[in-house]
Amino acid sequence: MVAKYRILCLLGCLSVIGPLFSQQVNGHWYGIGKMQNTREYHNYLSELILRQKGKQVWGELDYYFRDSLVKVPVKGSFDAVSRRLSLQPFSMIYYLSQSARNSIDVNMSGNFNLLVSKTGSVLTGSLLPDNDHRYTVPEINYRFTLSNDTTDLVMTEDIPAKADTAVTIPTTPDIQETPSDEFAKRSKVYTKELELENNVVRIEIYDNGEIDGDMVSLYLNNKLVLPKVSLTHRAVRLTINLDPSLPFNELSMFAENLGTKPPNTAALILYDGATRYETLLSSDLSKSATLKLKKKP
């Protein structure tokens, strides 16, 4: 009887201790931060890259401010018992700054709780301003999701590339041979030129802000490759074949509507083998944001 009691106690201890050792915050966490108590809408598409040794945590917070990618180092601690992540104060751009280059910095600290389930790991919490700015800077609420399939890619610019779930479009989808009349009427605005190694690339696209009913289509060289999809926090993924006979390929985002908060703005990730490129695309009913894709010499 005593032996059975000892075994039960041992199993009970293991059931408590085991999860403590399994709770880690290592990895790439993706989410959108939403400001609270402000009349002007702001959100921060972000990636939190963390490393952990014991209770010590360090890494980097990458976030978009307007049209710029900002990277800041962070450090803090993680308590496996309470599953609480604390980030020490670090500099973040004041939300009313006009740009990332001409900005004012504010010290923010973070408090997050880790939730682990069979479906994934989530960090929920907030970034809070220091005492000097507690009445002028709203807190930023976050829900970060751990990427379970992050690969060791060469990042040209790191931004969130994974969402909770995704819609995958079949490889080399059928294309429309002639552009739609509406697409042909709109002007193209070239936002970025990329030099690529491969003729086959993977693409992910999702909403860069508040989910407001944005719908877009993608055109490759004026031919439809992704017809009329709704943009959400869930990435839409597809693989496209580039035409190597052309001086460059054009990938255009066509706005099917303006949602409730114009214009249509999307985050687009392009994977060229082991290299990942990122960009923001903004289209409306008069112009289509377009990427130039060139083969490296």
Could you outline the blueprint of secondary structure elements for this entry?
Layout: H1 2-22, E1 27-35, E2 43-53, E3 56-65, E4 68-79, E5 84-93, E6 105-117, E7 120-129, E8 140-146, E9 154-155, E10 166-168, H2 181-185, E11 187-196, E12 200-207, E13 215-220, E14 223-230, E15 235-241, E16 249-255, E17 264-272, E18 275-283, E19 287-295
Parallel strand pairs: 9-18, 10-15, 11-19
Antiparallel strand pairs: 1-2, 1-8, 2-3, 3-4, 4-5, 5-6, 6-7, 7-8, 12-15, 12-17, 13-14, 13-16, 16-19, 17-18
Question: Could you explain the architecture of this structure?
Answer:
With 297 residues, the protein is mainly β. Helix content is 9%, strand content 54%. The chain has 2 helices and 19 strands. It has helices at 2-22, 181-185; strands spanning 27-35, 43-53, 56-65, 68-79, 84-93, 105-117, 120-129, 140-146, 154-155, 166-168, 187-196, 200-207, 215-220, 223-230, 235-241, 249-255, 264-272, 275-283, 287-295.
> If helices are DSSP runs of H or I spanning 4 or more residues, what is the number of helices?
2
Largest sheet: 8 strands, antiparallel, barrel
Average predicted confidence as pLDDT: 79
Contiguous uncertain segments of 5+ residues:
13-21, 149-178
Q: Estimate percent helicity.
A: under 10%
Cα distance spanning the termini: 78 Å
What is the number of beta strands? 19
Shape: globular
Structural class: mainly beta
Secondary-structure element pattern, one letter each: HEEEEEEEEEEHEEEEEEEEE
Strand order of the largest sheet: 1-2-3-4-5-6-7-8
| Percentage beta strand | over 45%
| Rg (CA only) | 22 Å
